[in-house]
From TrEMBL, chains A, B, C, D:
Lineage of the species this protein comes from: Bacteria, Bacillati, Bacillota, Clostridia, Lachnospirales
Every GFO/IDH/MocA-like oxidoreductase domain range: 135-254
Protein keywords: Oxidoreductase
Protein name per its UniProtKB record: Inositol 2-dehydrogenase
Domain of life: Bacteria
Keyword Membrane on entry: no
UniProt-listed SUPFAM superfamilies: Glyceraldehyde-3-phosphate dehydrogenase-like, C-terminal domain, NAD(P)-binding Rossmann-fold domains
UniProt similarity note: Belongs to the Gfo/Idh/MocA family.
Length: 343, 343, 343, 343
């Protein structure tokens, strides 16, 4: 590596294009030399050209087999992640993989083993850790400004529910949506979750129940260090993407507010009207995606550890599985419950 | 009643003096004609005189037996509440009673029966309903501005822990502190709690455990209307009294922020520094106490229902009992659990 | 004086009743023993009785001549202030006088001379100095937290314009409304004004011009210490009473925001709607009036200097006169301009 | 033009590189085909290559004479702007020119005449109009939400003073710094300035006086429609780049707050500490530069008017000249003053 990380992009759907555009135009030291997509079409080829990606392919092997490629961005569908990670690891390439690594534990474990064996890097796409506000909360807590951590709270509500066609395959609210928050509470508390209790309901749309899912959930968590946590999710918050975190400790509390579309306020006889939060994750975490990519590129070029690794990807999935079982049984579930740690 | 409510004040401790001073100077239509305290002393007599209370007594019977007294404020210790309510009801007097009515269900029930039989009014001192910010949140939700209610959240954290001598007799965090929040979630959701799950720990001070208590707790609640709720309490929030509520619904969210000591902000190279929240309940709910008293006096003078009644007092205690059992068993507990509904 | 300041209240109009009620119920150590009003009527007598004032009179001499009265609150019409100050001073009574002392310099000067000669105290009713937010701004600046002061800004806008019958006799926007802000910039800058430039217009209602007045004005000020200042006033701000101050200095800036009716915020698809500022000065400066009265009573009882004295009353009037001349001439006017310092 | 605007970039200093990078990576439909700089060096050539600019030159004529170039971005030093505008106009190219067009009126006028004669577009770089918060304030006012405009206020303070070597040639605070705010008040008020009064001083650093300049200034403005305005500038605000605007009108007020580095708040016993404003114009107006460039490219490709034209460039310079004369004479100065309208 000579100061430029030569990247192969796998998957040119929405998230693949996002990473691709950012890497080409905003991330110094990154260069995508090939983009592969099993469903390559004219639209994807046109996009690739527009961002200066010289080569396109239908076959990821064209990336894995290319000795000039240093790293891969795995942005294909979740069910392909584990195989691609294993393949990329064998090929000696550093790996950025979108979350989740997989939805079953055995696939995650074989991915992590392959990565370890190959001695390559694996960064998992928990993008919210790179949001400047969440990061500032983390940094204040991690640097001891609030002393010992007592409680972590995460409010995470989407502006609009996904279509039912998505819900059907999403893996459920804990695996698909709250998984970000499970990572967030680990990030903010600096400790591991030991037990969860989940309460949920179909308040937005009863059709979620048709897929065994809920649209609203509150999960209470216990941490190894004794701290407590709580996360609330809702699939539909019509006032906008609600993304707030709080950490309470012995010396104080650090929390953040939503990022608004603008800072203007209209004061009339009706009150003072401010802007809505930035619409959804593409807007709110726009800058965070770039920071995430920069962190990966920097870790590869400087041979430093990645900031979010395979273990983080595993832990979030385990918590999601425990939350699922808790919802189904109506009881708290420990993370070492055999139903959680096995597939 | 001729436009003035003649009141007998029972109990001249901190809360009794607070109600007494307010009633005498800030509540139109109220007049305390006698103040009784089992432990009457010179200091209490001096205070009574300073606020214009003409008569003092060691014996509450002097109040109950006085046909010129229309209503009583029961501000004595919790263990006396039920007997005084029963006695006042029999005497035909309207009753304001500080919370809780009692810590066991049978005492509450005999109080409510006596009140019902006598046809008098009973208002319970859930003062937070009269806070202008919490009330504005309630009013927005109750008037349909956020549509169907999905989730209610209450963050309620005291600035400093009470002395262990108090903890010993407090009845525990749920009965002593979170009871206000149990009432608040009923007020905000417009629905009854059906099940609770409580997680807690001694994070502030391990001595709470000596009394079987916790200092930090998160309680998840389910409501009859399908909504979910969550309350977090901590005995010590060194940044100040943290009192925030949120209601999320199908059309939006209404929430409040803490009331600060002042609205000044100092911007320097270190950032922007604002004031702390008003210190504790006497400061934060200073105006709410007056509104609470006005509401009682108005209800008595106009023969309208009181805004917070005996049933509200009972329900909050039942939720507290369920939360206690949940903490002890590590399981969710229904409100109709026999351990909850019996003493 | 034996720990209680015996007060004579002169004038039972709106502001007189406000001071009177506060002094009787909220200011420890204060006791109004007589209230006088040239236009005493049943309503005023009823009010006096309701707040526990034993004696009423049509003749202020009943107050001045009463050797048991320690201090007077002059709340009568502006044109009577100077004579009453002189009379009270001769009678050896400490004086609280509502602003302005007078609208012409000679009346102010003879008032101040009488006060000085008698060795009594004179506090002028610049109530905003006692607002907790403005005071916090002042305290931060005065204690050096922003270093040398560069610029002071005051935004002061009334929610609704007074009736034209009031405008006719008000003395104009500078003497009637901005006079509070002239005192505020002196308070915040810690320096004396040397020159002003006033721009104004009739934007709200052209009828202000009928009385030679404007309804909107911006005044730029220069201070002895080199700092600059700016004040903007408007007679009508339909979104509520807008009262914000800023002080900029070499190390930072301290400013305040309006006090809102409550801290609730309603977030919907339309944005986030917060409450309006507290309506007008009676609401916004409600607590400040009490603090002002307490400060006077404390100064009298402890024989300490009053926090806002006669010189402050004079200075604000001189600035108002200079602003008036600037508006009329379209030129900056110095405070030592003979038209300013003479009547 | 076939959907792509072929651009020649003139000047590769800080602002030229900023526009260049944005145009290449973030502005759809833009393509820089040549970049010219009188002082071309290796660093500039390297930069050009890194953003995909194929051709570099020392001679702007290589751009003007190239028939394949549709538009130019003039980012060279101010003294070259007028000549380059005239030359580009003659060559039939659309023009984006950084502010100011020139510091003397005759140069501006000959630029505007050349542009008009050639029928090309000229957009002037008043980037703040494209800031999302300022724009939201403008849009609310322009759409009538606050009714008739009464007062416009702009607070604009730089985080740190420029070096004296810059001050020497800057043209003074009004031409160099406040010129943005002069454009802003025209933008927000929807009206033309008729008279200004400027007060200023050297509060930050007495060395500004060595160059006949001030470091702190307050300018009061009158508008054709009767509205009033005020701008305050300071060369050094150590708490960060302070960029706030307010518009007051008959129905309300719309204003904005600074954009902060993040939305985290740390609450401890010392108060609540939030982040500083984003550091300086490159950070605060980062997105606005892109919006500005997009607006120009869109206007060129769709043959629509540019949002900020040559007249806007002229007007801001005239106001700056009037402010300068006011500061020197201590008197208000009209915009039609011969000293303002002539060189």
């Amino acid at each position: 590596m000579n100061g430029v990380l030569r990247i192969g992009l796998i998957g040119m759907g929405r998230i693949g294009k996002l990473h691709g555009s950012n890497l080409q135009s905003l991330v110094k030291g990154a260069e995508i030399v090939c983009a592969a997509d099993l469903y390559l079409d004219e639209d994807k080829e046109r996009w690739a050209k527009s961002v200066g990606i010289a080569r396109c392919s239908r076959d990821p092997e064209d990336i894995f087999e290319d000795p000039d490629i240093d790293a891969v961005f795995i942005c294909s569908s979740t069910d392909t992640h584990a195989d691609f990670i294993v393949r990329a690891a064998k090929a000696g390439k550093n790996i950025f993989c979108e979350k989740p690594i997989a939805v079953n534990v055995s696939d995650i474990n074989r991915s992590l083993r392959a990565v370890e064996k190959a001695g390559v890097k694996l960064q998992v796409g928990f993008v919210r850790r790179f949001d400047k506000s969440h990061k500032a909360v983390h940094d204040a807590a991690a640097s001891g400004k609030i002393g010992k951590v007592y409680v972590v709270k995460v409010c995470s509500r989407d502006p609009e529910a996904p279509p039912m066609s998505y819900v059907e395959k999403s893996g459920g609210i804990f695996m698909d949506m709250m998984i970000h928050d499970f990572d967030m509470v680990r990030y903010l508390s600096g400790s591991e979750v030991t037990e969860v209790y989940a309460a949920g309901g179909c308040l937005v749309d009863s059709h979620f129940a048709d897929y065994g899912d809920v649209d609203t959930a509150i999960v209470t968590l216990r941490f190894e260090n004794g701290a407590l946590g709580v996360i609330d999710n809702c699939r539909q918050a019509p006032y906008g993407y609600d993304q707030r975190v709080e950490v309470h400790g012995e010396k104080g509390c650090v929390r953040d507010e939503n990022q608004l579309e603008d800072e203007a306020r209209l004061a009339t006889a009706s009150g003072t009207l401010g802007a809505k939060p930035t619409w959804f994750f593409l807007e709110r975490y726009n800058d965070a995606f770039v920071e995430e990519e920069r962190a990966f590129v920097k870790a590869c070029l400087s041979d430093a550890p990645v900031p979010v690794g395979g273990k983080d990807g595993l832990k979030a999935v385990l918590i999601a599985k425990a939350a699922r079982k808790s919802l189904e049984t109506g009881r708290p579930v420990r993370l070492d419950d055999p139903d959680v740690t096995s597939d």
